[in-house]
């Protein structure tokens, strides 16, 4: 890209490479009190999962202790964690979610 420098000459502007934002996984954590139906509801409503996919994720949470609800930029992941946590508390459920950088174990 070029632009006049005020003296009739043009300057060449360099474009800097924009780094992709780091992605975060939103994980649902298992507990012994949140109903499975509520977890499926959360996955469908907040993470836009189809019923069958939501049930598979819920079963992973139940059997493996956690399941990936989705992968997002940091702000979106943290917002989803806050929204779902608020809905769970309002419904009287202790459902826990965390957002962790993708690629970390």
Automatic annotation (TrEMBL):
Coiled coil: none annotated. InterPro entries: ClpS, ClpS_core, Ribosomal_bL12_C/ClpS-like. One of its GO terms (molecular function) is peptidase activity. Residues 20-97 form the Adaptor protein ClpS core domain. Keywords: Hydrolase, Protease. GO terms for biological process: proteolysis. The keyword Cytoplasm does not apply. Pfam families: ClpS (PF02617). Belongs to the ClpS family. PANTHER family: ATP-DEPENDENT CLP PROTEASE ADAPTER PROTEIN CLPS (PTHR33473:SF19), ATP-DEPENDENT CLP PROTEASE ADAPTER PROTEIN CLPS1, CHLOROPLASTIC (PTHR33473). Involved in the modulation of the specificity of the ClpAP-mediated ATP-dependent protein degradation. This is ATP-dependent Clp protease adapter protein ClpS. It comes from Deinococcus navajonensis. The lineage of its organism: Bacteria, Thermotogati, Deinococcota, Deinococci, Deinococcales.
């Amino acid at each position: 890209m070029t632009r006049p420098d005020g003296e009739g000459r043009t300057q060449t502007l360099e474009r800097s490479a924009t780094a992709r934002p780091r992605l975060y996984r939103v994980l649902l954590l298992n507990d012994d009190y949140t109903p499975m139906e509520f977890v499926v509801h959360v996955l469908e409503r907040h993470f836009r999962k189809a019923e069958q996919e939501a049930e598979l994720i819920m079963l992973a949470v139940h059997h493996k202790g956690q399941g990936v609800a989705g992968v997002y930029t940091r702000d979106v992941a943290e917002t989803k964690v806050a929204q779902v946590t608020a809905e769970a508390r309002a419904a009287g459920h202790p459902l826990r979610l965390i957002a962790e950088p993708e690629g970390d174990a």
